Amino acid sequence: MGSTAVARHIYTKAAAGGKRVQAQGGAKNPIVILPDADMDVSTRIINDSVYGCAGQRCLAASNILTVGDQKGAIKESIYASAKSRNTGYGLDSGVEMGPLITRESKSRVSHLIDQAVSEGARILLDGRKEPVEGYETGNFIRPTILESVPENGHTVKTEIFGPVMSLFAVSDLEEAIAFVNRNNYGNMACIFTSSGLHARTFRSQVRAGNIGINIGVAAPMAQFPFSGWGDSFFGDLHGQGRHAIEFFTQTKIIVERWPKEWSRKF
């Protein structure tokens, strides 16, 4: 029998006082939708991602890119789904979206919508115009859609953290990927398509830490992996899954050899 060499990777508790960083950053999450996607289901899921939790989560979608939508079918489907979303008190039956968390948050989101308009954006759907019956003084903003948002403006790169979608029309997948990669954030990016080729191209070329294929990325449980690129993350290792364990450990590598007959040969 020949000799056997074994390498072991041992985790030990990290030394106290070590200077390491583990911090999540902001986000401006894009979703790309192609005309070959199932339009009704896809646009509903996209609206779930944008307006779930009233947009108050780091993985909420924000910039929606419609590819090759010359006749406006994708835009029309997105608008109809957003317009019909039931907004109100979260414990009432049938409510799909609740209020913003504070009055200050409502004021901030409203201000950012006004700022987008001042930059040249057009409001396709204004969620500030219709109060929620019975809760007129609440912190509600209904689903809002902006279009014609200038790419060199403040809105396209600012995390609004509210129920506001920016809608962009692009000609092809290559243009969509270039748009995604120009953003300084890289928290998540999603694509909706029935083409495996387009999905593979997207997931390999976009610069984002969490990728969704025909699904909006949701915040996973702590034991699941989580990633973020660019200004969406600062540090050495991420805060969930195996990275979280490794962050709080020092590693020791042990190489062992137990030969039946001693020799310098392996």
Strand content: 15-25%
Summarize model confidence as the mean pLDDT: 86
The CATH architecture designation of the largest domain is: 3-Layer(aba) Sandwich
Estimated helix fraction: 25-40%
**CATH homology group of the largest domain:** Aldehyde Dehydrogenase, Chain A, domain 2
In spatial order, strands of the major sheet run: 5-6-7-4-3-9-10
Radius of gyration: 23 Å
Quote the CATH topology of the largest domain: Aldehyde Dehydrogenase, Chain A, domain 2
Shape: globular
Would you give an account of this structure?
This protein has helices spanning 39-51, 73-83, 103-119, 173-182, 196-205, 241-247; strands at residues 5-13, 22-24, 29-33, 61-67, 122-125, 144-147, 164-170, 185-186, 188-192, 210-213, 229-230, 233-235, 249-257. It is an alpha/beta fold and 266 residues long. The chain has a 7-stranded mixed sheet with strand order 5-6-7-4-3-9-10, with helices on both faces. Strands 1-13 form a two-stranded antiparallel sheet. The chain has a two-stranded antiparallel sheet with strand order 2-12. It is globular, with a radius of gyration of 23 Å. The termini are close together. The model has no long low-confidence stretch (mean pLDDT 86).
